[in-house]
Design brief:
The structure is a single chain. Helix content is 33%, strand content 25%. The chain has two domains: 258 residues, L-amino peptidase D-ALA esterase/amidase; 121 residues, Ubiquitin-like (UB roll). The strands form three sheets. Strands 13-12-11-14-10-15 form a six-stranded mixed beta sheet. It has eleven helices and 15 strands. Strand 4, helix 2 and strand 5 form a beta-alpha-beta unit. The longest helix is centred in the middle third of the chain and has 23 residues. Helix 1 packs across helix 2, helix 2 packs parallel to helix 3 and helix 5 packs across helix 6. The protein starts with 12 loop residues before the first strand and ends with a helix. By secondary structure, it is an alpha+beta fold.
């Protein structure tokens, strides 16, 4: 990170990373994070029914106690591995617990990588010891590298906040490039703050932030088996405890967390596998959240729309068709307006009278493209971020295991 983007360590949050040789390319692939005894952690997880063994174990451990450590490996998802996968995840937690002097129930495991392969346990064991020997509050960059798979760039954000006269650190990392779709949209996210806040407020803050960030991105419509996001508050800041979601302090803190997570989520989209376009799909005037998201995802996930975006082809009929098949009941097509950037492409049930191919082409030539659909059915708006589909997306995923 450059001096213009300093990383602010979070007191009580220690990160260690190492090259455990889980990845075939030999890059950093195992991270241990130690949390101070006062720390509280909130978490959200994938809704994929075939959730990975570490997701199952992490959920169980969160029910038993507050975590004292997080263990993350990349290069192997430990998903689709049955009972052996669960035992491997638990054994990994025991090894971390032995190194740090806590119980295995106080360790949350996370994995990302290839599905259906067992963890290389000897490498995991050695890697845990190495990562624990590197623990430091300044270990963010190494940890960020250690959670990457097909990512081409690290995704990290750090902020110093002044909330009602109190200084707070807020730093986070995420990974994800493909297999991205709610809920959650393979992604992992780890955010930490030194703020003093209750568990209930922390969980509410995380759930609200994930809803408008990681659950509003889609690259390819595939919800991973391993998605997870944590928000840890180490309680080390000099400030009163945030103990009510109705307080002004909570609102300021929650807004900052949302901003950080939205930025991390958008970094995932911009680094989408083979992506050449960053696309914002906004649906205005819906009756409710569900129908807005139905329409947004129909457009954002359409292979025909996404390939047209890659070709910079203003083939507006593909967008119109996607809106029409979104499944919204009693849709009045005559009331709908569709825009590329500020160019109206559809109104009154067909091509806008003012539309020209030249105007549409100018928008499609851009790297960042806005698609806006105005339903004129209500007052609800929702936004989804997505990418195009390029030749490289197919190549990256065709060669993923090679």
């Amino acid at each position: 990170m450059s001096q213009a983007n300093p990383i602010h360590p979070v007191a009580g949050f220690y990160l260690g990373a190492t090259q455990a040789k889980i990845k075939k390319n030999g890059k950093t692939d195992l991270v241990v994070i130690e949390l101070c005894p006062e720390a509280l952690t909130a978490a959200t997880f994938t809704q994929n029914a075939f959730c990975a063994a570490p997701v199952t174990v992490a959920k169980q451990h969160l029910q038993d106690s507050q975590p004292r450590a997080l263990l993350i490996n990349s290069g192997n998802a430990n998903a689709g591995t049955g009972e052996q996968g669960l035992q491997d995840a638990l054994q990994s937690c025991e090894w971390v617990a032995s190194e740090l002097g806590c119980s295995k129930e106080e360790v949350l495991p996370f994995s990302t990588g290839v599905i259906g392969e067992n963890l290389p346990m000897e490498k995991i064991h050695l890697g845990i010891a190495q990562a624990c020997s590197n623990l430091a509050v300044t270990g963010w960059e190494e940890a960020c590298a250690g959670i990457m798979t097909t990512d081409t760039v690290p995704k990290m954000i750090s902020r110093r906040l002044e909330i009602e006269g109190h200084s707070i650190s807020l730093t986070g990392i995420s990974k994800g490039s493909g297999m991205i779709h709610p809920n959650m949209a393979t992604m992992l996210g780890f955010v930490a703050t030194d703020a003093k806040i209750t568990q209930a407020c922390l969980q509410a803050c995380l759930s609200d932030a994930v809803k408008v960030s990681f659950n509003r991105i889609t690259v390819d419509g595939d919800t991973s088996t391993n998605d997870a996001c944590t928000l840890t508050a180490t309680q080390q800041a000099d400030m009163p405890v945030i103990d009510s979601v109705n307080s002004a302090t909570y609102q300021l803190f929650a807004t900052a967390v949302k901003e950080v997570m939205v930025e991390l989520a958008q970094m995932i989209v911009r680094d989408g596998e083979g992506a050449t376009k960053f696309v914002t799909v906004q649906v205005d005037g819906g009756q409710n959240e569900q129908e807005c998201l139905q329409v947004a995802h129909a457009v954002a996930l359409s292979p025909l729309v996404k390939t047209a975006l890659f070709a910079s082809d203003p083939n507006w009929g593909r967008i119109l068709a996607a809106v029409g098949r979104a499944g919204v009941a009693s849709l009045d097509i005559d009331a709908i307006e569709i825009y590329l950037g500020d160019v109206c492409i559809v109104e009154h049930g067909g091509r806008a009278d003012s539309y020209t191919e030249e105007a549409g082409q100018a928008v499609m030539n851009e790297t960042d493209i806005d698609i806006t659909i105005k339903l004129h059915r209500g007052a609800v708006s929702e936004t989804v971020w997505t990418t195009d589909f390029s030749y490289d997306y197919v190549k990256i995923n065709a060669e993923y295991r090679s």
